[in-house]
Write a structure and sequence with these properties.
The complex is a heterodimer of chains A (431) and B (224).
Chain A (H helix, E strand, L loop, with lengths): L1 H11 L1 H37 L5 E5 H10 L12 E2 L15 E13 L5 E7 L3 E4 L5 E4 L1 H4 L4 E5 L13 E5 H7 L6 E5 L4 E11 L8 E4 H8 L4 E2 L1 E6 L6 H8 L6 H8 L4 H11 L3 E5 L1 H43 L1 H9 L4 H39 L9 H26 L2 H6 L2
Parallel strand pairs in A: 4-11, 8-10
Antiparallel strand pairs in A: 1-13, 1-14, 2-12, 3-4, 3-13, 5-6, 7-10, 8-11, 9-10
Helix pairs in contact in A: 2-10, 2-12, 2-13, 10-13, 12-13
Chain B lengths: L1 E12 L2 E12 L3 E5 L6 H8 L7 E6 L2 E2 L5 H11 E4 L11 H12 L4 H10 L15 H13 L5 E5 L7 H16 L3 E5 L3 H5 L3 E6 L2 E7 L6
Parallel strand pairs in B: 3-8, 3-9, 6-7, 7-8
Antiparallel strand pairs in B: 1-2, 1-4, 4-5, 9-10
Classes of the chains: A alpha+beta (431), B alpha/beta (224).
């Protein structure tokens, strides 16, 4: 009988039930999309921020100590201590190797131009092909690590393009203007131990100190300084997990962690954990996060997640209000029927159960449709904002189910209260 | 023995006295018609006897229990177990068939039994219309479904509010014949009506006016 009554109610009120289902579907779809994006946004924001440069710098240990002692920004890089170029590939052998998306080495030299002006020359990779000790290979360099550089004239140097001269350089726009240098010009420079003729292949605008520098290929800069196989610095771009208390504690002193904490920290892609592993892979090195980038990542992530939580809450409130109006209207429309049930002896709980069953069935249909719609929304957000798909996490299903059940029941409370207050004499006899 | 006893019953809405110090006793198996003009208090009395309203003052003893002091939950149980309601507007559930409308009363009372519901419809001459929706039935047929629903749980008292108010003469006679049958089976019947012809066939006629009992007459010709 109960099923017949439910079936009958749906047959009679299918339009109203459809609108309730659509309301629930909309709320569920937004909640599903937002929760999925929120859970995936950490990685996505990290990937997005990787286009804004490296987030880890690796310096020789002695240089880092000097820098810490005298609080010098990049200070002491000429102090005579170097990293070994031969160990560069080790970076891609650490536990979090797959999270290392890019890295590039640097060697600094100071060269003198024909007019006697001393100019910094930085040796680095532009688009270098590297065969790793693991048998894999990697293309890395400044081209992907300095995506914001605007190459006004000429083009990027690409070591992999045949015919690229070894003495090709890129110079900053400030230096080019000051010295009247154009693309294709040859500049004669005097290095610390050797002279060289440099061919300008590109002029870039970096918007900083680099605009007054010359960027040459690593081998040439090492040759000019007689520092074959040595490096001053490595910049690393890694996908990281936002820091928490454990990561902050570990960053100060990994030895302060318990074994369980250490394992959890080591096996999580915290920036401090990746730095620690890089230090293990590169002899006498100190790897440190570039705080500005790391902090920006955290702040952006926090704000993005807060925004999504707010959208989810608002969508759920909207759904609850919609459900309240629709279910109340439905109960009002059926007041005569409900009054009759009460008159013939139906308990309040029986009638509430009947109405709630109808709403919950409608809610389940709406929520299932909404979940799949939300999956679609999440993919649209993923592709539009992050250029990649959003992974659907199975544990979102119970979260959304509980949320929508709560919203549906909360939205039905006013209607149920109205139903309980309804007196059969009033609706059947108008008294 | 009195099945129903109203002692000094008043029902007051603001300054309006819908019922004013009513005293009434209805015996088991009695067929009582309650008459009176609009606003005389007929429906109010019906609601109080039917446990759908409470008096402002006085006692309503049904089977010795003062229903004026019972909780809403107990009144629901009394309606379910002891009272059968027949309405002028029929109040059938429009998405259920005739037999399902009868089974609804069984469902809220105990267990739906389609066979028994069919027998109730057969008794009111509607067995062949059992699978029809209310919209497919005439007014007289709908009222007969309503009567079958009122009788399905074997109530001690049947309350009918203007049962023939929306019926033509032929259907009115069918309904009155059913009431005769019920009376012969010793069912207590209280029929609220405007219609003197309906009142005349009852065993006893009570006339209300301005919330008071104007007359309480025994029909001398009853049963003849």
């Amino acid at each position: 009988m109960f099923i017949r009554m439910i079936r009958g109610a749906f047959a009679r009120q299918w339009k109203k039930m459809l609108v309730i289902a659509l309301t629930i579907m909309l709320g569920t779809s937004l909640a599903t999309a937002m929760i999925n994006v929120m859970l995936d946004v950490g990685d996505k924001v990290n990937q997005e921020l990787k286009t804004y440069g490296a987030n880890i710098t690796v310096l020789p240990k002695s240089v880092s100590v000097m820098s810490d002692l005298y609080e010098m920004e990049g200070g002491g890089e000429d102090s005579g201590s170097y990293l070994l170029e031969s160990e560069l590939g080790n970076i891609k052998t650490i536990f979090w190797a797959f999270n290392i998306v890019d890295f590039t080495p640097f060697i600094d030299a100071s060269v003198t131009l024909p007019d006697g002006e001393s100019v910094p020359l930085v040796g680095t990779w532009f688009n270098h092909h590297l065969d790793l000790p693991t048998g894999e290979s990697l293309d890395a360099g400044l081209k992907t690590l300095r995506t914001w550089w605007d190459v006004d004239q000429g083009e990027w140097i690409d070591e992999q393009v045949e015919g690229t001269p070894e003495n090709a350089v890129m110079i900053g726009t400030v230096l080019a203007e000051r010295e009247g240098i154009s693309v294709g010009d040859t500049i004669h420079v005097q290095g610390p131990v050797k002279d060289a003729d440099l061919v300008v292949q590109g002029i870039f605008d970096a918007g900083g100190d680099e605009d007054s520098q010359i960027f040459a290929q690593l081998d040439l800069a090492q040759e000019l300084s007689d520092l074959d196989g040595y490096l001053n610095k490595i910049e690393v771009s890694a996908l990281t997990t936002p820091d928490n208390e454990l990561a902050e504690k570990a960053a100060k002193d990994p030895k302060s962690l318990t074994i369980a904490q250490y394992e959890l920290w080591y096996c999580t892609a915290y920036v401090s954990s990746i730095c620690y592993q890089i230090q293990e892979a590169i002899t006498d090195s100190v790897a440190a996060p570039v705080r500005q980038v790391a902090d920006s990542e955290g702040a952006i992530l926090e704000k993005t997640q807060l925004l999504m939580v707010l959208i989810t809450i608002l969508s759920l409130i909207g759904s609850a209000l919609g459900i309240t109006n629709l279910v109340t209207a439905s109960v009002m429309e059926r007041s005569s029927e409900i009054g009759l049930f009460k008159a013939i002896g139906a308990k309040d709980s029986s009638i509430s159960g009947l109405v709630l069953t109808e709403i919950i069935i409608t809610g389940v249909v709406g929520a299932v449709a909404g979940y799949f719609l939300g999956f679609g929304f999440a993919q649209i957000i993923g592709h539009t904002v992050f250029n990649s798909s959003i992974e659907m996490k199975p544990f979102v299903i119970p979260i959304v189910a509980v949320l929508m059940l709560a919203v549906t029941l909360a939205g039905s409370i006013p209607a149920i209260r109205m139903l309980l207050r309804l007196r059969p004499a009033e609706v059947l006899h108008g008294r | 023995m009195s099945l129903l006893e109203l002692k000094n019953i008043s029902k007051i809405y603001g300054e309006l006295k819908a019922l004013d110090n009513i005293n009434l006793s209805v015996d088991n198996g009695e067929w009582v018609a309650i008459m009176g003009p609009s606003g005389s208090g007929k429906s109010t009395m019906m609601n109080i006897i039917g446990c759908m309203d409470k008096p402002s003052m006085g006692e309503v003893l049904l089977d010795g229990v003062d229903i004026a002091r019972e909780s809403a939950k107990n009144l629901t149980a009394i309606r379910r177990d002891k009272i059968g309601l027949i309405f002028q507007q029929f109040h059938l559930v429009n998405y259920l068939t005739a037999v399902e409308n009868v089974m609804v009363a069984q469902y809220y009372h105990s267990i739906p039994d389609e066979k028994e519901a069919m027998e109730a419809l057969e008794r009111v001459g509607l067995a062949e219309r059992a699978r029809h929706l209310p919209s497919q039935l005439s007014g007289g047929e709908q009222q007969r479904v309503c009567i079958a629903r009122a009788l399905i749980n074997h109530p001690e008292i049947v309350l009918a509010d203007e049962p023939t108010g929306n019926l033509d003469e032929a259907n009115e006679n069918i309904v009155l014949d059913l009431f005769h049958q019920l009376h012969e089976e010793h069912t207590t019947l209280i029929v609220v009506t405007h219609d003197p012809e309906v009142a005349e066939v009852a065993q006893r006629t009570i006339t209300l006016d301005h919330g008071r009992i104007k007359s309480d007459l025994i029909n001398e010709n009853f049963g003849k």
